[in-house]
From TrEMBL:
<dbReference type="InterPro" id="IPR001910">
    <property type="entry name" value="Inosine/uridine_hydrolase_dom"/>
</dbReference>
<keyword id="KW-0378">Hydrolase</keyword>
<dbReference type="GO" id="GO:0005829">
    <property type="term" value="C:cytosol"/>
</dbReference>
<dbReference type="Pfam" id="PF01156">
    <property type="entry name" value="IU_nuc_hydro"/>
</dbReference>
<feature type="domain" description="Inosine/uridine-preferring nucleoside hydrolase">
    <location>
        <begin position="4"/>
        <end position="303"/>
    </location>
</feature>
<protein>
    <submittedName>
        <fullName>Inosine-uridine nucleoside N-ribohydrolase</fullName>
    </submittedName>
</protein>
<dbReference type="InterPro" id="IPR023186">
    <property type="entry name" value="IUNH"/>
</dbReference>
<keyword id="KW-0326">Glycosidase</keyword>
<dbReference type="GO" id="GO:0006152">
    <property type="term" value="P:purine nucleoside catabolic process"/>
</dbReference>
<dbReference type="InterPro" id="IPR036452">
    <property type="entry name" value="Ribo_hydro-like"/>
</dbReference>
<dbReference type="GO" id="GO:0008477">
    <property type="term" value="F:purine nucleosidase activity"/>
</dbReference>
Length: 322
């Protein structure tokens, strides 16, 4: 069984990624060994509370959640209330999770200790927020042990969604992204030109709710997704939502067909104009070793089918965790 450690910043698409992983965990297909969070879409305390609350609603209140770094490595933190709402989950304000005492958990284990244990167990690391925690960890402990590292971030030789050239996760902490890709580590990178193709529109969302049926999240998902739909509509993308982090989890676990290219990735951190811009040396101009497998395509219809399958697993009483 694959062990998985998720590093995220919930965030609406992170929330759907958590639901997906919860469905697989409840069915015994993976073991979600823990979740850590970064400051990104909202502050790190809120991202940890959001993650813990979602897991509790999915019947996984026992999965440990740890808040990680509270700020980017160098630059000041900028959050995205216009994209994900004031508390990260759209129009919904999550209550404190009943079964998870995050303060007590922080005293028992640090997020770095959780990562070390996961690496020792050969877990698959999936990072769907800024790579702040990842850069800190690799700088101190290296990347050895993890079966794989998969990252959602960047706009590889492609237009950005935060500036003309930069994607949000890399823009919010460009120094962390630069540092990681300069380290002796290999990752799989799911960047905008692939992840933005995975769209949920109102029709697909209604199908999601039908599958979930009476699951506890059915009552709150409309308030969460409506905010995301409205944001994308304001951006000229239509009344729908790009679900970047969910597709990244599927690619990380190999549950959907995808194509990738070995290459060398670098991220700009010094220039204000090009802050967070990611570039892949697809033609070998730098003559440097490959440090990344950049995902160049994925079967989007298969991804929708896979998410529906996971929601069925999540909603099934047969998969209740004892």
């Amino acid at each position: 069984m694959k062990k998985v450690l998720l590093d995220c910043d919930p965030g609406i698409d992170d929330a759907l990624a958590l639901m997906y992983l919860a469905g697989l965990h409840r069915a015994g297909e993976i073991s979600l060994s823990g979740v850590t969070t970064t400051a990104g879409n909202v502050g790190v305390k809120q991202t940890a509370l959001n993650a813990a609350w979602i897991l509790e609603q999915c019947g996984l209140g026992e999965v440990p959640v740890q808040a990680g770094e509270s700020a980017p490595l160098v630059v000041d933190l900028v959050t995205t209330p216009e994209t994900h709402g004031p508390e990260g989950l759209g129009y919904f304000s999550p209550p404190a999770p009943a079964s998870t005492d995050l303060a007590a958990a922080q005293e028992q284990e640090t997020w770095q200790e959780m990562w070390k244990a996961a690496a020792a167990a050969g877990a698959h690391l999936i990072v769907t927020g800024p790579v702040t925690n990842l850069a800190r960890y690799v700088d101190s402990a290296g990347a050895a042990g993890f079966s794989s590292i998969t990252i959602m971030g960047g706009a590889i030789n492609y237009r950005g969604n935060t500036t003309p050239t930069a994607e949000w996760n890399f823009w919010v902490d460009p120094d962390a992204a630069r540092s990681f890709f300069e380290a002796p580590a290999h990752s799989t990178l799911c960047s905008l030109e692939v992840t933005e193709r995975f769209l949920v529109d109102p029709q697909r969302f209604e199908s999601m709710l039908e599958i979930l049926n009476r699951h506890p999240l059915t009552a709150v998902l409309p308030e969460i997704l409506r905010f995301y739909f409205e944001f994308h509509e304001k951006q000229g993308e239509g009344y729908q939502a790009q679900i970047h982090d969910l597709l990244t989890c599927m690619i990380a676990l190999g549950t959907v067909p995808y194509e990738a290219m070995e290459t060398t990735v670098a991220v700009e951190a010094q220039s204000q104009l090009l802050r967070g811009t990611s570039v892949a040396d697809l033609r070998g101009h730098w003559n440097r070793p490959a440090n990344c497998a950049v995902v160049t395509g994925a079967d989007i219809e298969a991804a929708h089918r896979e998410f529906s399958r996971a929601l069925k697993l999540l909603a099934s009483p047969e998969n209740a965790v004892s």
